Structure prediction request, 594 residues.
Amino acid sequence: MLFLAGYYGGTLNDNSGSMAGYSSEIRDQAKRLYLQHWAMDDIKEHLNLPNVRVLYQWKEKYCWDDLLAHESPKIAIARRLTSLADKPTKDDNDFKEIEKLSAALLQLEKVETERFKRERMEQGEDGPGKKKKKRKKNDVSDITAEDLALVRNDLFYGYQQRWHDNKHQRTRFILKSRQIGATYYFAWEAFEDAVTTGDNQIFLSASRAQVMVFRAYILSFANKYFEVELKGNPIILSNDAQLHFLSTNARTAQSYHGHLYVDEVFWINDFANVWHVAKGMASHKRWRRTLFSTPSSKSHDAYTMWSGDRYNEGRKDEDKQELDTSHAALHGGHLAKDRIWRDVVTVEDAANDGCDLFDIDELKEENTPDEFDNLFMCEFVDDSHSVFKLKQLLDCATDRQHWKDFKENATRPFTNRAVWLGYDPARSRDDATLAIIAPPVLPGEKFRVLQRVYLRGKDLRQQSEEIRKIKDRYNVQHIGIDVTGIGWGVYDLVKVFYPRALALHYSPEIKTKLVLKMMDVIGEGRFEYDAGDKDIPQAFLAVKKFVTSNGQISYCAHRNAESGHGDVFFAIAHAIYKEPINYGRRKSSLSVAA
Prediction:
């Protein structure tokens, strides 16, 4: 989709006309997406079709399913994982499906491994009684450097080719725009290097779901271009190269060694300690370290490394470096005195290097100037003007794999434990956000953001129906809904099946209460979310204080159609609003009704 140019390379030679006035090019594109295991709703949205009915008609008429008849389950899962990983904006359901499919893929590999062991015990490759031949797992021996170079030159844009040309640099640090294909490219680079050199590759991200995106890309590369099915976690190639996929809470990471890739470093909590462990994995001079990220705030631990100030600490004036970190100075690559090669790639740079995946004018219209600069032009946020501070927010990040009481794919994901819901309609387009929060029950527990559900492209009745489905799966004890403006419609429909829904009619007083409650919860360390959900800290950083025309203090958060930042914050706040500000003196507020 977004990064794989080959997915859109030309159209099929089918001049048989179109159905319902659609061109053969549109139908061919829909067919390719279907064969990549895109959901029908996602195909409809991507191609701007009015409904999915025409897609099902094409599927039947042109026998698309027949083309999948001989596809193995592993290939099908790998293709679907790749399509999910390539989505420009992933919602909570997408990350849930990534984890589910990754687990299924590992289980299939386990079954295949056990079957292979039994077959080897029963007979050799040449039949019963013959000398057994040892089969190689993840056999990449037929893949040549020339084959890999041909694919690489076809797949990647100019800025990605520049990253490859500088692969010899010991340490690379890249500041990038959103959605320009950095994770996709570095997954390829690591795969290519592992095949040609046999070197180990280590991937480090803030959460398990986030790091498994690397794995999904690599499985797809091997299968799509070289018809090799990879298995295992870690993946161990036939040349003994090991590919490890780790989250930043893997404190045993120093036991690994190899080339290191650290994803979204400016959103990693406690970066100084993480980097201390990570450097140990790539201490030998043969190993390279690659860090890349969208910008967060200058207050983040990693910023001193980016700015060069960390190198200057404790050095004499004559030994210090003067590093210009402006776009003009670093774009195209710059090797500084600290031996770090830095590069900056904005969305405009990507477009100038051939990336035609963005409508930049539309992005500027959808976002405020500050949001556009942060998301797409590599500008850091000044959180000194934000109500919440980045360090506070990152301290609340965790990896949801540790939530043993929460099973996302179960019929009752949280069994009979209570949840609180917060709904916020967007102020732009037709987006809305629903937050599912687990309130604390026992001493020491925190408010947990179990899920965020984005209700995009749905009318009021469809949105209320989605909320009803959530209510049926969870033990819902509170629903807080913003009824200012268009929220009234959903509130009226929700009250039919949940009469206790709380209407929040926005005023400076209500906004102040919502923000103060969240400041109290975060200040006391009673809030938790998955580290891979970067939209949550981004949403909180968007909350600013302002003075109304009549002199009252109030709060606002810019809402944008690309990510719904303000909606995420307010949806969470609407849920947690159930607990009064003086919860410590009202312990009953934490009780859970059966």
In short: The two ends are 45 Å apart (CA to CA). DSSP finds 23 helices and 17 strands in the chain. Confidence is low (pLDDT under 50) at residues 1-18, 559-565, 585-594. Residues 92-122 form the longest helix (31 residues).
